[in-house]
Design a protein that fits this description.
The chain is built from 18 helices and 12 strands. By secondary structure, the protein is an alpha/beta fold.
């Protein structure tokens, strides 16, 4: 188990200390893992209803992230995935509760209902008015779990916001409870998991999922879902989630809703945006009007990878409550979705018409075409090897990038002006600039563009010496742009000696290309012993020793393709 913790026993104590230390609007109750607003007494004196929530830790930013004006007055944190004690809840109620009363918002789990419910009873006996709303938004099990009811998951955050805004507006406890309960009754959620999570005290995952397995409808503590299936394109998997939500939430065409796309802790924002894309598009097809959308990690399950979708049916009051201001640190104000993906016309960069250069024969154009095909095929085939090499010393994307660049050239091959090699190279440079990406993209685009510009100054494109001059100019252009030199352990350690060998060799193009390839191979091999001074490898220092530079190896590969 790898986690950024000290002692598993103290993770919750240290977590709440970190949250409070980072935000002077929050304070801790002594001897408890309870976070409250620092101005809670002013809220009490103003006659406002206090809103409390909480539950087991491990769901951050819930619940403490939603403590703030306009949302929660306090949050009670239990041990990881464990309900807080009755005493902790009772202390929180007695601290923040005044004559206006306290509303408890909890998720539908037995431990939370028992501990919060008993604390509420004790508080009422001491004269504090207390009401409770239990959120059960998870529709994964359909109607198959009537006795226990639906579990509470990420949609609970929306109820926090609605209740907090209602309390901030000065409504009575009964009215705040009624608004929160009505919202909970119009809320439906469901999730899917790609990986398990590890409770710090346990030290191992709470369940197992195969590399190609997905759990549909699991709970936020790793409880069993509806079924396990095979990983599939995300749109296919989300269709099952949305169908279940729409069915059991009773949503129909014409309904106004808020959409919450929630990450479970280990899901990148990139993937959540793809989930949001599908959900908005599919709901529009169903005629369900999404008036507010939120995407991010709002209620997690430690480091679990996966997501959940929540739909909240809106009326004017609920829509206003969601948009009301709050100071809660983790709340992300909803945005209003567009009806469609809107685009504006982009500037057509085109090709610099000044780059034309000498024309050569149809025979030479055919050889040139064959050489380009050979290079793109070689780079495609080398993708796994280049990925392996780059994963050892870099970020692992070189193989994919080079293959993508090759694909772009092949896709646009029919547009290349092969009878004018300088112009064709300028066209290739534009493709690489757009599609190759990463560090290699601009460097190779410069390399090819400088070669093209140099060729325009030559009288005969068939002259091998002209290509020798173009290669050397291209290397110099790359060094100017990237700031590297031979010896820095980059692709230049293969490119520069190869260009020198081509220019120095005598004889026809085939002889020069062979010399160039041999020099590239030797240069790439020499990088094994070099200290990295440029590029991603420079971040790992001595650990790169013994591995060839992936960029230099890529040069030897495409030069080998030219050699045939």
């Amino acid at each position: 188990m790898k986690k950024l913790i000290n002692d598993p026993v103290h993770v919750v104590d240290e977590m709440v200390e970190g949250l409070v230390r980072a935000d002077d609007r929050l304070i801790l109750l002594a001897d408890e893992t309870v976070i409250v607003r620092a101005d809670y007494d002013a809220v009490k004196q103003a006659g406002r209803v206090a809103i409390l929530s909480g539950g087991g830790s491990g769901h951050e930013p819930a619940h403490a992230g939603y403590v703030g004006a306009g949302m929660l007055t306090g949050a009670i944190a239990g041990a990881v995935f464990t309900s807080p004690s009755v005493d902790a809840v009772l202390k929180a109620i007695l601290t923040v509760g005044g004559a206006a009363g306290v509303l408890l918002i909890i998720k539908n789990y037995t431990g939370d209902k028992l501990n919060f419910g008993l604390a509420a009873e004790f508080a009422r006996a001491r004269g504090i008015p207390v009401e409770m709303v239990i959120v059960g938004d998870d529709v994964a099990l359909g109607d198959g779990n009537v006795a226990v009811g639906r579990r509470g998951i990420a949609g609970t955050i929306l109820i926090h916001k609605i209740a907090g805004a209602a309390a901030d507006a000065g409504l009575s406890l009964a009215h705040v409870r009624d608004e929160a309960q009505a919202a909970a009754d119009n809320l439906a959620s469901m999730g899917l998991s790609l990986t398990p999570c590890t409770v710090p005290a346990a030290g191992k995952p709470g369940f197992e999922l195969g590399e190609d397995e997905v759990e549909f409808g699991l709970g936020i503590h790793g409880e069993s879902g509806v079924r396990r299936g095979k990983i599939a394109p995300v749109d296919e998997m989300l269709e099952e989630l949305l169908a279940q939500i729409v069915k059991y939430g009773g949503y129909k065409s014409g309904d106004r809703v808020a959409l919450l796309v929630n990450g479970l802790g280990g899901t990148p924002a990139l993937e959540l945006a793809i989930v949001t894309r599908y959900a908005l598009r599919r709901l529009a097809e169903l005629g369900i009007n999404v008036e507010a959308a939120m995407s991010g990690t709002f209620l997690s399950a430690l480091e679990m990878a996966g997501c959940s979708l929540s739909l909240l049916r809106l009326d004017e009051t609920r829509a206003g409550r969601l948009l009301a201001p709050t100071q809660a640190a983790a709340w992300v104000p909803p945005s209003r979705p567009a009806d469609e993906v809107r685009r504006t016309a982009a500037i057509d960069l085109g090709i610099d018409d000044s780059i034309v250069g000498p024309q050569w024969s149809a025979g030479h154009a055919a050889v040139f075409a064959s050489a380009i095909h050979s290079v793109t095929a070689a780079l495609r085939a080398a993708e796994p090897e280049l990925t392996r090499l780059d994963s050892a010393v870099g970020d692992g994307d070189l193989g994919i990038s080079m293959s993508r660049g090759a694909d772009s050239i092949e896709a646009a091959f029919a547009t290349l002006d092969l009878e004018h090699p300088a112009r064709a190279l300028a066209q290739v440079s534009a493709l690489l600039r757009r599609w190759l990406g990463g560090t290699s993209g601009p460097l190779y685009a410069m390399f090819v563009l400088r070669a093209a510009s140099t060729l325009t100054q030559e009288e005969r494109a068939e002259d091998p010496a002209a290509w020798g001059r173009a290669l050397k100019a291209a290397c110099f252009g790359m060094m100017e742009l990237g700031g590297a030199s031979p010896g820095d352990r980059t692709m230049l350690d293969a490119l520069v000696p190869a260009a020198d060998a081509f220019a120095a060799a005598s004889g026809d193009a085939a002889t020069r290309i062979a010399a160039m390839h041999e020099a590239a191979l030797a240069g790439a091999e020499a990088t094994r012993a070099m200290q990295p001074r440029r590029g991603r490898s420079s971040y790992i220092g001595d650990r790169a020793t013994g591995h060839p530079d992936p960029g230099a190896v890529a040069v030897s590969i495409w030069m080998g393709a030219l050699r045939g």
